[in-house]
Specification:
Number of helices: 2
Mean pLDDT: 88
Shape: rod-shaped
Radius of gyration: 15 Å
Helix content: over 70%
Distance between the termini: 30 Å
Low-confidence stretches: none
């Protein structure tokens, strides 16, 4: 997930859609959102196995 976020931010930076600071923020936000999504999916999976 982190590599996808880095590539996306690099693409935006290379094409002039974002500056370096914005690219770092975008990569951080995507990484955080991905981690949150994976955590929720893992917890749902664990709850299903209990029931």
């Amino acid at each position: 997930m982190r590599h996808v976020a880095t590539v996306a931010a690099g693409f935006l930076l290379a094409n002039g859609y974002a500056d370096a600071e914005a690219a770092q923020q975008i990569a951080g936000a995507l990484t955080g959102a991905g981690a949150l999504g994976l955590s929720i999916a893992e917890k749902r999976s664990a709850l299903k196995s209990i029931w």
